[in-house]
Structure to design on (282 residues):
């Protein structure tokens, strides 16, 4: 029970702290996002919570206790550098698995590293792995002792674990609501044969919100009905889609109809008029 409560507390702390890290990083430090000069919810949940950071904090906490006695005795600094590397690799792995699960099963690309050198499927890249390394070092040297102190204090004052339970109550509601929105997006993504770039989609929502003079529209998706989502896909999907999926669907369509053979070169779409009617909105 003690271990379970510790994991739940770490997940809650990491999810909330990570949300604020991402919020300010994207606004002021991200090479691409900062050019927009505006705050935007960095997660797919409505509330201030990024589960990937919750999972990451659990991994960092566990790896911070790793000891390699033979290396630590001879090269204590080298030992720390190796631990930092393991932490960065763990965070990159969590990022890759999470990103690919959403792309493959939800047709949703939560973040897009394709503008950065050396990226793999736009989900991980060397630049952000280096940032994970820096964050791992900061956690190990600065945050880890404080996290342990927080956990010790909480278990000495069990009444405050009520707030952890409160977090999970709100978190459950948020997950249920947000996945309803994600499922609607997935259905439309399947209909149009695309993978949706979620950041770009929310950026387009923000643009429409500015036009409508309603900033809350960009932050809370409650006003986004199935009809308005369908309208957005019909009119603006080129702003937030990975076109490769459209190409693949169109080629499959032409192969089935006997228009092209599998041996032929891939057909690249130039405009929406080339998309088969079965892939267009009603």
């Amino acid at each position: 029970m003690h271990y379970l409560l510790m994991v739940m507390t770490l997940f809650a702390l990491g999810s909330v702290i990570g949300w604020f890290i991402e919020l300010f990083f994207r606004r002021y430090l991200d090479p691409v996002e900062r050019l927009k000069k505006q705050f935007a919810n960095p997660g797919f949940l409505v509330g201030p919570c990024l589960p990937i950071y919750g999972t990451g904090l659990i991994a960092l906490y566990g790896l911070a206790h790793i000891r390699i006695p033979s290396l630590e005795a001879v090269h204590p600094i080298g030992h720390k550098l190796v631990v930092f590397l393991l932490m960065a690799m763990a965070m990159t792995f969590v990022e890759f698995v999470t990103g690919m699960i959403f792309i493959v099963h939800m047709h949703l690309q939560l973040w897009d590293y394709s503008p950065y050198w050396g990226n793999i499927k736009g989900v991980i890249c060397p630049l952000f792995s280096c940032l994970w390394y820096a964050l791992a070092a900061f956690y190990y040297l600065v945050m880890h002792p404080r996290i342990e102190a927080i956990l010790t204090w909480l278990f000495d004052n069990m009444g405050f674990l009520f707030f952890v339970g409160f977090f999970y109550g709100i978190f459950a509601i948020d997950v249920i609501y947000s996945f309803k929105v994600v499922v609607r997006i997935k259905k439309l993504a399947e209909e149009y044969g695309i993978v949706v770039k979620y950041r770009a989609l929310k950026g387009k929502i923000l643009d429409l919100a500015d036009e409508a003079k309603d900033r809350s529209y960009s932050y809370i998706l409650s006003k986004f009905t199935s009809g308005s989502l369908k309208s957005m896909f019909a009119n603006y999907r080129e702003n937030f889609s990975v076109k490769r999926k459209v190409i693949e669907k169109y080629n499959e369509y032409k192969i089935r109809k006997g228009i092209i053979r599998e041996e032929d070169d891939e057909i690249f779409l130039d405009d929406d008029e080339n998309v088969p009617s079965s892939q267009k909105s009603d």
Remarks:
- Residues 149 and 209 are 43 Å apart (CA to CA).
